[in-house]
Specification:
Blueprint (H helix, E strand, L loop, with lengths): L1 E3 L6 E5 L4 E8 L6 E13 L4 E12 L12 E10 L4 E9 L9 E8 L12 E8 L6 E2 L13 E9 L7 E8 L5 E11 L4 E9 L5 E8 L3 E5 L16 E4 L3 E8 L5 E10 L6 E6 L5 E9 L1
Antiparallel strand pairs: 1-2, 2-7, 3-6, 3-8, 4-5, 4-7, 7-10, 8-9, 11-19, 11-21, 12-18, 12-20, 13-16, 13-17, 13-19, 14-15, 14-18
Length: 302
């Protein structure tokens, strides 16, 4: 039962003896090398006038991006059954605060009241969700709040790297491809391509449907140079002029590409995008000819 605590106006949830408080931690940070701690406090006032204070702490230790195209995914830690309720009463406070080093909206918490000590948090009707939201130094999740995350508050992923062509004769098509994770979505913000080579043929950035069918061209050019987009003078497609967001989801892809018929040139790609929390996009650098040397300089969430 949800309502104001009888002796005041604060939102409260009815609890019974034997209920438990449990929570799940969701993190997008499986690509970063750090340990992040989330702490929380809850307070229950019982019908006999006594009260309990509960403390919570969760830590997630996450690794490095790994090889080209690696990283991403979702870390989920579930902590059921470790805070039993002693008596009938009201849950009047519960909040979580995030670590100082966590990127914006990259760690989320869900809190539950459970009427049984068995089962999976959120996996049965016996569990009641009582809070959901991000936990960062600038945001606390509190009892009775269920925060949606608008795109303006999505975390930002920065990707930058190079593809060094080998000496295989032929046309080298180098690329950076960004794809959402299953259930994810991303919004393109800006990018840069540095196309080098005496016989540079073309460079472009575009969104396709995952099968090579172009849905919209962000930028294209046909000479060596440094191109920032969507503000590059070589951006001629009307797709960019309407002020609409560039959203990618499902099997869609954002592709930054260069083509040159010279060999042993280095092509440089960079991109910034927002992404749906907990689902870091996959970034893949490639060359369709030979065996390139790939260097990932940045793959970082902010």
């Amino acid at each position: 039962m949800v309502g104001p605590y009888p002796s005041g106006s604060s939102l409260a949830y009815r609890i019974k003896a034997g209920d438990i408080l449990a929570y799940s931690l969701f993190s997008a940070l499986t690509t970063l090398n750090s340990t992040y701690s989330v702490r929380g406090i809850a307070r229950a006032i019982y019908d006999d006038g006594t009260q309990d204070i509960f403390s919570f702490q969760a830590e997630s230790t996450v690794g490095t991006p790994g090889t080209n195209g690696g990283g991403g995914g979702t870390f989920v830690a579930t902590y059921p059954g470790d805070h039993p309720i002693a008596k009938d009463g009201w849950l009047v406070e519960w909040y979580f605060g995030g670590p100082a080093n966590a990127p914006n909206n990259s760690i989320w918490i869900e809190g539950y009241i459970g009427s049984t000590s068995t089962g999976t948090v959120g996996g049965a009707l016996a569990w009641q969700l009582v809070l959901r939201g991000p936990v960062t130094p600038m945001a606390e999740s509190t009892l009775g709040t269920f925060d949606p995350v608008g795109r303006d508050n999505w975390p930002i992923l920065l990707v930058q790297g190079t593809v060094l062509e080998d000496n295989t004769v032929g046309t080298h098509v180098c690329s950076l491809t960004l794809t959402p994770r299953a259930g994810g979505a991303m919004e393109f913000l800006y990018g840069q391509i540095i196309l080098t080579g005496a016989a540079a043929l073309s460079t472009s950035a575009y969104i396709d449907d995952g099968a090579g069918n172009v849905l919209g061209t962000l930028f294209n050019a046909s000479a060596a140079g440094t191109y920032g987009f969507p503000n590059s003078a070589s951006t001629t497609n009307a797709f960019l002029t309407g002020g609409i967001p560039f959203l990618i989801s499902g099997v869609m892809r954002l592709i930054l590409s260069t083509a040159t018929s010279t060999v042993s040139d280095t092509q440089t790609f960079a991109c910034a995008l927002r992404f749906r929390p907990n689902l870091v996009p996959k970034a893949t650098f490639a060359d369709n000819t030979g065996s390139p040397t790939i260097t990932i300089n940045t793959y970082t969430v902010f």
